[in-house]
Structure prediction request, 400 residues.
Amino acid sequence: MKERNLALIVMDTMRLDEFNRLEQRHRLFSSLGHAAFVEKCIAPSPWTLPSHASIFTGLYPSEHGAHETKRIKALDIDHIKLKMPTFVSELNALGYNTYAISANPYVTPIYGFSDFSHFYEESYFTDIFGSVVEVSDRLKPLVAKYRNLYGTNLLKISLAVLNNEPDLFLELLASASLRTPIAALKKIKAKVFEGWPIEKGGSRIVKRIKQEPLEEPYFLFVNLMEAHEPYVEKKGMDLNWATPFLKKGPDQKTINLWKRLYAKAASKAYAYAAEIAKTLLKGADNETMVVVTSDHGQAFGEHDFFGHGAVLYDEVVRVPLVLLSSRQVDKVRPGYCSLVNLKEFIMEYVAGKESMQKLYSKTVYAQSFGVPANINITNAIDIKKLRKFDRKSVRRFTYA
Ligand SMILES: [Zn+2]
Prediction:
């Protein structure tokens, strides 16, 4: 059997309409040669973790279980993480070299994406588990339940850990005093020299792929975070999980600023994805395919909602899907495609078959099980609105 390389690039948080605008203006993907643009691709979930779990298992969130509920939220790692093997294990068994480079902390071995033979984190989100404190990867899941309860309140987290698990507290103290200064320096460097928060690691990912050749046959997964919030460097000025539920929503000036910065950040992710695809298509000895997509979109006040997660509007679940190949690509078909179908498509591709049809289903779904994160209830939060979104919903797309 002839060996085929494959890469999957996720431009995290890239809306379909934003991608189409960029491609119309710059034509970076069309100019790469053989390209197929799938117009009706639906993300199975409106946020990162369930959506990626669906891509890698070929199952909807209701089937793979790595999703939020009313009680289980994003930082409750033990309960929410992906607990089943992915197609990466199957590729390993076939002799593939499997690489992942992720800028998103939810797409890491900690959250269950542990099948890759090579995993590189290129994240600027060093503070997701502790605001100002950084600890080792081994300790992160152990402290996550406290983060889930107390958010970024360092004093409350520390007191609770000290009370319940004094040994863990000592371990955390030792790890944090070693790692926090390094993380702080990295953050300052990112802000001053690298253009954070618009730049979120993509530049380093491109550099790594250009400098370190992949051993063939390979499967490469890349997550580019540029289009994801934050967009504004100033604290308290950005959208976050709580924004849609504020009693007093953002003013038009702020919304316009977010939209402008989103467009800037998204164009970076778009350019990085095209650069990676170009590098891979030119550099390989074997036949190579690059699949470029997104895990969900982003709302900027449409339907009175901001950000992603919890809602299944077009702005949040319609995503781009592009297939690029070193040789002729099969024609796109009408009808709906879901990211859950990528697994079967990929497995057929590595088996040497043409299987564009595998991407499509008569009916595809988007599912939400509530608000992905714990929202700190303050006076600023509209509890009624929060409750309205913190529940299960399904949207179906059927091609007649
Ligand atoms: Zn995402």
Summary: The radius of gyration is 21 Å. The first strand starts at residue 4 and ends at 11. Residues 12-13, 47-48, 228, 295-296 surround zinc ion (CB under 6 Å).
